[in-house]
Amino acid sequence: MTESERTDRISRRNLMLRAGAGILAASIAPGLFKTEAANAEALSNITPDAALKKLMEGNRRYIQQKRTFPDQARSRIVEVAQGQHPFATILACSDSRVAPEIIFDQGLGDLFDIRVAGNFLDDGVLGNMEYAALELGVPLLVILGHERCGAVKAALDGKAVPGHISTLVAAIKPAVDATKNRLGDAWDNAVRANVKMNVNKLKSASPLLAEAVKAGKLKVVGGHYDLDSGKVEIIA
Ligand SMILES: [Zn+2]
Asked: Can you name the CATH fold of 47-234?
C-alpha cells in the first residue's frame, strides 16, 4: 500500500465514522428537540387563570397530605437543564416556613421564586418580576404574605432595629399605618394590608408589568398563607 493509499483509506474511515456519528445524532436529536419544543409550547401556552388553578391545586394536595412531588425526577433535571419555563412567579417572605415549592407541591423549573422578609417591592424585586414576566413569559405573579410574619411584627412594634433591618421595617410601615384603627387582629390586618398594598403598588411601580396585565399576558394576585393549616387564600 502506498503512502497516498494509506492516507486515503484513513480519511475515508474518518469520514464514515463522522457520518455514522452524524446519523446517530440526527436520530436522537429530533426526538429530544420535539419533546423540548412541545413542552416549551405547552408551558408558554398556559393561561394566567390555568396557572393559578395549577398552583392552588398544588396547595390543596399539600394541605390534604396528598402531595405528588412533581417535576423532581432525574428526567426533569435533564429537561430543565435545557431551559426554564416556570408557570408562576412567587414573591414570598424569606420565612423558613413559607417555602413555595413545598406549600404549592411543585418541582424544578415550576416556580420563579423571589423571597424577601416581609414580601414587599423594591427595585431589585421589581427587576426580578419584570425578568420573569417579559423574558421568561411567566403568566402568573403571586405576592404571598403569611400569618404571624416577623417582619410585619417588627414594623408593628415600631421599636428601633439594628443595621439594615430598618430598611425592611420602613418598607412595611405603610401597611401598619393603614390598618392602625381597624378592628380585629392588628398583626394579621397589617399582613393582609401589606399584600394588598404591594399588589396595588405594582401597577404604578412597573409600567412594563402593568402593560403585560393589560394585554392579558399576566395575572397578579395577592395571597395569604395560614401557618396553622397550610392553606393559601387569595386576598387580592
Ligand atoms: Zn414573614
From this structure: Beta-carbonic Anhydrase; Chain A (3.40.1050)
